[in-house]
Write a structure and sequence with these properties.
This protein has 226 residues and is mainly beta. It is 13% helix and 46% strand. The strands form three sheets. Strands 3, 5, 6, 8, 9, 10, 11, 12, 14 and 17 form a ten-stranded antiparallel beta sheet that branches. It has a four-stranded antiparallel beta sheet with strand order 1-2-7-4, with no helix packed on it. Strands 13-16-15 form a three-stranded antiparallel beta sheet, with no helix packed on it. The longest helix is centred in the N-terminal third of the chain and has 11 residues, at 48-58.
Amino acid sequence: MDVEIRASPSFAVGRCTLAGSEQMKAEAGAMMAHSVGVEVEAKVQGGLMKGLKRSILGGESLFMTTWTAPDEGGWVDVAANLPGDMSVLDVSGEMNVTQGAWLASSIDIELDTKWGGFKNVFGDEGGFLIRCNRTRKIVVACYGAIEQLELAAGEKVVLDSGHLVAFDPTVEFITRKVTRGIIQTVKSGEGFVMEFTGPGRILTQTRNPQGLIGWLTEALPFSTSN
């Protein structure tokens, strides 16, 4: 699978080009367009229980789609729900991907739901542990632009978890409060952050989807049904 990103960084679209009879996985509803002859099958990947775990804990759709190119090959365009950028990652072994960031991948990459930090208790953050036996591609999407941090061994950085997209399994992290005490937390408007320690790469997004949800909740008129 070869991936070309266009319309980046604001409204990115990923064109996944497949060889003859090659397959790929994509999040349900991610397809924008595809070439004639490409076939699609939607099903619960990994069985019902694993699909429910991925849906409830990971925040993703219960179903995934498998796209299969005809003998002459084909392509599938994928796009995310939120405006923003995309990145193509070569994964060998494992990669941690946060809730809503995974968009598409090579067919033999396995997605498994993983605990993503203390904020999971509140349902704000979840994630996937991406597994593959050989180097394969995954397509991740974000809200805003994607930036990549390369941490040296022992180097640290603090990040609001709402701005996290993905990170290497070699990167260690702890989750903690930004400030001391409830009063300072309320005054600063900040809650919990993730403190990462290298080595490895971290992909971040310049906007926080939870911030958008909060703004819309306050801005939209309140309606009740009788």
